[in-house]
């Protein structure tokens, strides 16, 4: 059989199963057994939640790698390259490694139909076993209980936050979402939650599996000042740990606090300077990702954020309120059809002076007229564009020195913006991390 390229493999995976999402573990478990998969690493940490999974995983990986541990991170979705989903010791998996893994899974699959995500998850587990990791950090794709990542029994289970998203699959209440996310908990294994008010189904699951439970505001928490932030938490033995005068981070410090509590339970060296450096070095593309842009002699700021549900929009609005630009804040906005448009827009209306709305490059996108009509009904200034690139360019033209352009609403939106930045960097438009 002719060897497939990575692009050919991904195209094949997209048409392999009749539906893109098909919740359940039976198919994946069957193929994992044929592959002979056991555990991707001696220590496994699983992370779920409505928002904050990606940055929590990134913080954890930084903390663990700072101790010389070999860490694998599996996350989704990707922004520009599929390789982003599988990282081993800080490096994205190569095309060749991914193709080899897909070949192994395909051979074991036989006539069992797997979704795109299930194939990718088993391929990541296969690569992690080959890599002789110390720790695997696994981000749940959707929900928890029936997600392919949940094949693995986690030594630590983290739930970042609980809000309503993916209602078609997880239900339209926080209680139904909590039930699904609590499915990653295992008997006797520590569970951590960053949500202020975890719904009853999560607490019931904690009691059912008799899991040591570490809850924000009770067992660990943080406080954020104008220049620094601090943290306290517990070791597995119940001893109190504290960190003070930590430098403020670009990423959500709430997720850093959750990662710190997970790290505190692993009985690893506790060096405050090393920990602070690891947190400071953590970057996640597309999450509160602020960049400088020199556009036709104007110094602008571009803020990229993949936030796409009301919980994420509320958090983003809170961060924007304490980080005002010298000038105005303009927005480029696109949203998928299954997302809560009023819930995403409402927290940000007071923060944005002008909106440029755009469809996203997927059949799942809301139309520009729908977005435009809703914003006009909210008395917002808005205009429509054909795509993300033209919307972003129009806002750059509109902006004056000191303005900030917020681009948010979807991974698709941020990915298009990143490609736009790459093209214009090649054409001589300077861009780079604001730092």
Please characterize this protein's 3D structure.
This is Dihydrofolate synthase/folylpolyglutamate synthase. Keywords: ATP-binding, Folate biosynthesis, Ligase, Magnesium, Metal-binding, Nucleotide-binding. It comes from Phytopseudomonas seleniipraecipitans. Its EC number is 6.3.2.12, 6.3.2.17. One of its GO terms (molecular function) is metal ion binding. By secondary structure, this protein is α/β, with parallel strands linked by helices. The protein has two domains: 276 residues, UDP-N-acetylmuramoyl-L-alanine:D-glutamate ligase (3-Layer(aba) Sandwich); 144 residues, Protein-Tyrosine Phosphatase, Chain A (Alpha-Beta Complex), CATH 3.90.190.20. 37% of the residues lie in helices and 19% in strands. It has 15 helices and 18 strands. The protein has an eight-stranded mixed beta sheet, with helices on both faces. Helix 2 crosses helix 4. The protein is globular.
């Amino acid at each position: 059989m002719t060897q497939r390229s990575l692009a050919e493999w991904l195209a094949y995976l997209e048409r392999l199963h009749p539906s893109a999402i098909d919740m359940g573990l039976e198919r994946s478990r069957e193929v994992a057994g044929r592959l002979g998969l056991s555990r991707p690493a001696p220590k496994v940490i699983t992370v779920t939640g409505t928002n904050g999974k990606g940055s929590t995983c990134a913080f954890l990986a930084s903390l663990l790698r700072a101790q010389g541990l070999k860490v694998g991170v599996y996350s989704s979705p990707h922004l520009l390259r599929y390789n982003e989903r599988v990282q081993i010791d800080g490096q994205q998996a190569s095309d060749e490694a991914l193709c080899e893994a897909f070949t192994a899974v395909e051979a074991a699959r036989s006539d069992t139909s797997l979704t795109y995500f299930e194939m990718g998850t088993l391929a990541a587990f296969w690569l992690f076993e080959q890599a002789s990791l110390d720790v695997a950090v696994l981000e749940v794709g959707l929900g928890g209980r029936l997600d392919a990542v949940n094949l693995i029994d986690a030594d630590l289970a983290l739930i970042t936050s609980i809000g309503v998203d993916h209602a078609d699959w997880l239900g339209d209440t926080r209680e139904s979402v909590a039930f699904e996310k609590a499915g990653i908990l295992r008997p006797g294994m520590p569970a951590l939650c960053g949500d202020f008010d975890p719904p009853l189904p999560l607490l019931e699951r904690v009691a059912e599996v008799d899991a040591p439970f570490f809850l924000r505001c009770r067992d660990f928490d943080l406080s954020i000042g104008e220049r620094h932030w601090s943290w306290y938490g517990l070791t597995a033995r119940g001893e109190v740990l504290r960190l003070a005068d930590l430098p403020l981070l670009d990423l959500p410090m709430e997720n850093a606090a959750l990662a710190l509590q997970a790290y505190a339970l692993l009985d690893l060296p506790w060096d405050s300077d090393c920990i602070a450096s690891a947190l400071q070095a953590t970057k996640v593309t597309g999450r509160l990702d602020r960049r400088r842009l020199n556009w036709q002699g104007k110094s602008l700021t571009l803020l990229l954020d993949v936030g796409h549900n009301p919980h994420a929009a509320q958090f983003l609005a809170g961060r924007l309120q304490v980080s005002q630009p010298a000038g105005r804040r303009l927005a480029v906005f696109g949203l998928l059809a299954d997302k809560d448009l009023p819930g995403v827009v409402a927290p940000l209306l007071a923060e944005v002076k002008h909106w440029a709305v755009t469809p996203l490059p997927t059949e799942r996108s809301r139309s520009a007229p729908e977005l435009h009509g809703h914003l006009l009904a909210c008395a917002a200034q808005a205009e429509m564009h054909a795509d993300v690139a033209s919307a972003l360019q129009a806002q750059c033209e509109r902006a004056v020195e000191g303005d900030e352009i917020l681009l948010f609403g979807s991974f698709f939106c941020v990915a298009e913006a990143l490609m736009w930045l790459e093209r214009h960097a090649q054409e001589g438009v300077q861009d780079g991390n604001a730092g």
